[in-house]
Known about the structure:
- The protein is an alpha+beta fold.
- It is built from seven helices and eight strands, in the order αααββαββαββαβαβ.
- The longest helix has 38 residues, at 2-39.
Amino acid sequence: xxxxxxxxxxxxxxxxxxxxxxxxxxxxxxxxxxxxxxxxxxxxxxxxxxxxxxxxxxxxxxxxxxxxxxxxxxxxxxxxxxxxxxxxxxxxxxxxxxxxxxxxxxxxxxxxxxxxxxxxxxxxxxxxxxxxxxxxxxxxxxxxxxxxxxxxxxxxxxxxxxxxxxxxxxxxxxxxxxxxxxxxxxxxxxxxxxxxxxxxxxxxxxxxxxxxxxxxxxxxxxxxxxxxxxxxxxxxxxx
Length: 239
């Protein structure tokens, strides 16, 4: 029985890993679809798509999945039309939350998002009540050793970065959408490790909250991130 129990435990862990990996692929595929929908299916002329494809390669996403995601965005697959939706709400500590979603069933997704807010200590807001607190910008997060700070600053200034923050061997760089992919490639070419790169809703006035509320907000964000239709979640919390 002990051998059987051990095997059952291994299968359970493998199933959990596979489910997590599938969820990651779903998120990346949705981002590829959104990028293709906005700027077309040719990455040579669509910087956002190139960035999304880079994420797919980094996660070892199967080529067939990538191609389907692009065709879904360009409308080549047919079937139910997909649309991008932006949901707004508040979490514990009155933290503002923006949720990007991609769905082929607006009614289902809207009802689910509203329910997730209600059941997890948040509240849904009608359109416009939250979005005005954010601005959409290109954002790159990278590892920057303290010894390399000067070289990194020179690099991103030459690469037309709009703004940046440095600290604790980490950098957050803000760029115009048109400069995002070029700047990302320059940082990679300079041998800095990029943690993430893409378009984000950046809070105009970031806030800080107490630790208890922060844990509750993190749990709420996690619930949304686990929902397949959600592509990205943003808050007005200070990094």
